[in-house]
Design goal:
The chain is an alpha/beta fold. The protein folds into two domains: about 110 residues, no CATH class; about 200 residues, no CATH class. The strands form two sheets. Strands 1, 2, 3, 4, 5 and 6 form a six-stranded mixed sheet that branches. It has a two-stranded antiparallel ribbon with strand order 7-8. It is elongated, with a radius of gyration of 29 Å. It comes from Christiangramia sabulilitoris. This is DUF2851 family protein.
Length: about 425
Amino acid sequence: MKEDFLYHVWKFQKFDTVDIETSEGECIHIIHPGSQNYLSGPDFFNAQIQIGEHLWAGNVEMHLRSSDWYFHRHEADPNYDNVILHVVWDHDVEIYRQDNSVIPTLVLNSRVDAEILQAYEKLLLKQHTKLNCENDFSNFPEFQVTHWLERLYFERLEAKSAQIPELLKETGNDWEAVLYFMLFRSFGLKVNSDSFLSLARNLDFKIVQKTSTCFSLEALFLGQAGLIKFGDLYGEKLQEEYSYLKHKYRLENDHLEKPKFFRLRPDNFPTIRLAQLAALYSENKSLFQDLMQANTAEELKRILSVNISEYWQTHYNFGKNHAARAKNLTSDFIDLLLINCIIPLKHCYSRFIGDRYAAATMNLITGIKNEKNSVIQVFNELRPGLAKNAMDSQALLQLKNNYCSLNKCLHCELGASLLKKSPKYI
């Protein structure tokens, strides 16, 4: 058993609260259990509890054994001076405050129904092959699953959006520059996200705005990234253009990390991704405004669907040509851009200007097809057809990574519902 179980039992009062007493025989009446504290300090703040004839307001601390109080050195920590009740599973020693007064103790091991203990053991203590709740996952009510997935999606969206206030501060509240940073990082994918973001930070967005042609933007992006090679005439022309721009804008790139090609599919080579960014910014002079005004996923996809320059239709790198291929942004790649870059930015921008952002965000994310990976496959096997769109798949990734894999079942709306209060306590 872990203390998380005690937190859950106390928070939702899933124990026999009739005629409860302290270990010393004083009557206890729980008016309010308090608010759970997820940081350092007592486990629950601002509880209201009547003990004997006195009404107390303060904090509650919880341990599996009373002696854990001393094991964790709480007796020497003034943050625990305002603890009004010590809730434990087993009581093996009396606990005292710094002024030597006894802290009242409530023992739960005889007050929690056996059904709740069995459900907890089944959920968290037994071996499972896929999920802790794998045997129950298909039986959760549809409304409960839908409600929880929506909450999980917005939880994940907020995490993806956490960087945006920092980028706004860095750019002096320039939303267009924030989009520029986020696009570069997204185009770099996992392998080159850091080097692409570093490149964007090293290349002032105002310079990009002043550079009008796709050729000049290719020279700027590829040259600053140190990727131009003298393998053919086009590379020589790009280098010549970059040398001019480098001198004009006094650019430096000696300390920048060069993007990697290793283990990347050719369509994800940094040369191709930077050429696509050059095409995107050359064809869309009002890119930020257009993206913010788009109301559907289809509109966003049309804005992001650009044609790569002719040279890159027959090359993945300088000096090595192949049969012509369009190499436009694929539908799958645009979906990734929408999920990880555009929708978080639109979400934050709508909130910034005071629009009703939640409904618009839901409309966009549900208009994108669901992702396909091993995590989504597991959930779809347990509950066929669960991931219907990108909102569902993003929510399931959040569920797996932040709850299931960390055994935080008691913090999950679905997992916690399996530990139902025994009928005799209702």
